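Could you help me review a protein record that somebody else here produced? What it holds is a sequence and that sequence's fold in token form. I need someone to confirm that the token line plausibly describes how this chain folds. Take the sequence as given and treat only the tokens as open to question. This is what I was given:
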Amino acid sequence: MADIVSGPAARLARVRSLMDERGYDGMVVRDEANLRWLTGARGVFDFTGELPHCAFITRDAAFLHTDSRYFNSFAEHMPADHPWAIDMDGFDIPRWTAERARDARCRTIAVEDTMELAFYRGLTRSLEDVSVACSIAEMHADLRRMRAVKDEEEIALMRAAQAITDAAFAHMLTFIRPGLTEKEIKQELERYMFAQGADGLAFDTIVASGPNTANPHAIPSDRVVEKGDFVLMDYGARLGDYDSDMTRTVVLGEPTPEQRKIYDLVQRTHEECARAIHGGVDGKDVHELSVKIISDAGYGDYYGHGLGHGVGIDIHEMPNFGRRSNTVEAGAVITVEPGVYLPGVGGVRLEDYGLVTEKGFEPFTTSPHELQVIAC
């Protein structure tokens, strides 16, 4: 694993090294996941998409603008001895940013390539208003690439989130039975995770049964679960703003030969691909291995999604196991989730997530891979 020092102070130092390398005098950060990573403020960001915060970073100062709804929370939840000057002066954030650039005598500032267009336009107007001749460079996912390699603090939070997720699966094996609806299974699954200490949900829980399991992102419905059904659960706990992600498919009663065949294929694909993972591997190569295994078994037309994705503060982060080449570095946390989906019949997905090391893949997930048969 890459030698990454833990904590927000080390993350800010990494950002400043990037600024030196690129010749940036200042950096503007709006994305809440990037801000959570940089500041270490736990339990403050609500990730609604409203984007009420803005950071401005120079080589020797770090400014954070928020509003009255969050100011006290930042004061209470920032790490000890943090370097951030926090304020809530005014409501014109582009103007606030331009003034920080003026005061720091910036000539080049960097912005996220995901920055909303309205803010970007407001920033350019505000720089003109405060008489700053400043070029604006796009970072092209630089912060997201940094976030792809996790430090020990992040890994510990994700291990703890997964422990809740695994405990929920063990509980659901005793809860699921014919006669329940998909929505009722979802509600119990989420209730149990909160009872075990989850701060929130990693994403909207997927529960599908019978033919609905052929839809990879099925929305839980009022369908009543029956004997003979596959039941697929794709879910995760959120803890300290970090996510877990896991999928298990179970069967109610003894599986049919076809159910057993596709389950065994997905399990074999998962385990062979997991053995191919190591630091420095091309994610495309691992994905193509999953496609080959499933295609050679005659089910290639029924597997259309990528094998896996990075996880952290966001449920989908860099790197990826997919159709595009990208290096999966040691220290990344990533999913392995092959599936086979037969329209009108049903589908299977088996997903773990865990840490990429120099030598291999270390799952955080501890739930069994073998098909769990619920007696009924």
The mean pLDDT is 96. The two ends are 45 Å apart (CA to CA).
